[in-house]
Amino acid sequence: MAITTTSSPGASFAARARLETQLLSALSITGDGAPCPLRVTDLQLNDRVDGHFAWFALEGECEKPPAKLGISYRFLFDLDPSHRGILALTAGDAAHSAVLGPEETERSFVLATPSTWDAFRDYLKSGIWHIWIGYDHILFLLALLLPAVLSVSKGMWTPQPRLRPALLNVFGVVTAFTLAHSVTLTLAALGVLRLPGALVESAIALSVMLAALNNIKPVVERGRWAMAFGFGLIHGFGFASVLGELGLPPNARLLALVAFNLGVEIGQMSIVIVAVPLAFSLRNTTFYRTGVRLFGSAIVALLALGWLLQRSGVL
């Protein structure tokens, strides 16, 4: 959550108190149905590559160790319906995860080792949700898909006359991207290979910008699958950062990893299924060739340039 600070200690204290009140009114925990009062023990401002965030540490106390924990979360939904609360819950050797949003503000958990189905479902949903809110990942994928229904003639993009070559193009790009980010997601999630977060986020922004610029002036046409694979390796580290915040349950690490990755693929394919038929049906229109491919790609390139400057610390 981004907040604005002032130089006045009194104003800062008032802002903190107001935030704490809002948070505690929107978040509640119950143990076996009985309220577990919460209090804020710490507030820190964290600078991350994607913005400035307020981090709250909370402490709750139940009357007795509960067997079942209930969580209700409604923070910021009235101001930002796209906001989500990502829950990583550890109880003994068991780990649970959940994504709380306006359509699902409450969850309950049995504080024992969760069933394999529960773990699979929770991490699957987290993977789907992450790709849907990962605007940089979505724009990179769309930038690669835009010219899939086109072909290069005399150095210019022209409409692809047949569906089959377009689908083969899409298949190559999506498969390469999927294989690449699955490899690095797995390696990073298991702690085998890691890269600095700022470097990863900057490289992701660069990938979006280059893919968009390639749509304006085709430099890479037949080898776009290679571009998808190369930058897909970087995007995998971005996916892994979210999975790292959730954590992997000790009793089902591999299952949770597979479920999260599968969720990412489901979210990705839902975008492909909508975008490709629409692009093919519009490929002969001036709206698509000029409005979407040219001006749309220019806007994406500028947006990605802004991300790159911000994430690299220039802005």
Please describe the topology of this protein.
Elements: H1 9-26, E1 27-31, E2 34-35, E3 38-48, E4 51-60, E5 68-73, E6 85-91, E7 94-100, E8 106-110, H2 116-133, H3 135-145, E9 150-153, E10 156-159, H4 163-189, H5 197-216, H6 224-246, H7 253-282, H8 286-311
Helix pairs in contact: 2-7, 3-5, 3-7, 4-6, 4-7, 5-6, 5-8
What's the number of domains? 2
- The radius of gyration over CA amounts to 22 Å
Task: Provide mean pLDDT, rounded.
Answer: 83
Low-confidence segments: 1-11
Structural class: alpha+beta
Biggest sheet overview:
4 strands, antiparallel
Helix content: 40-55%
Topology pattern, helix = H, strand = E: HEEEEEEEEHHEEHHHHH
How would you characterize this protein structure?
The protein has 8 helices and 10 strands. The protein has a 4-stranded antiparallel sheet with strand order 2-1-5-8. The protein is of the alpha+beta class. Residues 1-11 have low confidence and may be disordered. Helix 2 packs parallel to helix 7, helix 4 runs parallel beside helix 6 (224-246) and helix 5 (197-216) packs antiparallel against helix 8 (286-311).
Give a brief description.
The protein is an alpha+beta fold and 315 residues long. The chain has eight helices and ten strands.
Short key terms for the protein model shown above:
315 residues, alpha+beta, 2 domains, four-stranded antiparallel beta sheet, 10 strands, elongated, disordered N terminus
